[in-house]
Amino acid sequence: ALAVFVLAGDNIVHNRALLVVLLVFPVVGINAVVAVLSVYGSELYPTPVRAKGSGLCAGACKAGGVLIIALVSFGITPPSIAVVALIGAVPMALAVLALAWFGVETRHRSLEEIGPAQPNPG
Q1: Looking at residues 19-29, what average pLDDT do you find?
Q2: CB contact at 8 A, 43 and 104
């Protein structure tokens, strides 16, 4: 949806149905990403730092939302739909690349397999 906004630019406002559909996809997508990050963040970090890691993921999600609201409030966000979509698409693409490169696959793995080996007390 963001790519369509970037390519179509401000001309997209003339097609109301397409505009509404394209606005729904990013909102649903962002909510899905935040939901996945909450779960993924809690499984990704080793048990001793799991709460801090989960909090970091949640905080980063919230910080992005606060940043965009602040930009809009101060009138910093450019008025062009294409530029606004590009501003959203670039960090999203970078996040996908970072997750693909650094992310740990957790499917069908126990927490013991994901985290580093813990010394056995006793």
Answers
A1: 80
A2: no
Dihedral, 67, 73, 79, 82 alpha carbons, nearest 10: 20
Burial bucket for residue 45 (CB in 10 Å: 0-12, 13-18, 19+): buried
Q: HSE of 13 in the Cβ direction (CA atoms, 13 Å)?
A: 6
Verdict on whether the full-model pTM lies above 0.70: no
Contacts with 10 (C-beta within 8 Å, 6 or more apart), sequence order? 80, 81, 82
Nearest Cα to 45, choosing from 37, 36, 54, 55? Answer: 54
Distance CA 56, CA 39 (A): 13
| pLDDT above 80 for 100 | yes
User: Taking Cα atoms as reference points, which of 66, 61, 60, 68 lies closest to residue 84?
Assistant: 68
pLDDT of res. 122: 47
In 3D space, the residue among 66, 91, 73, 76 whose CA is nearest the CA of residue 2 turns out to be 91
Rounded to whole angstroms, how far apart are CA atoms 62 and 31?
Answer: 12
**Token pair belonging to 83:** 């530029």
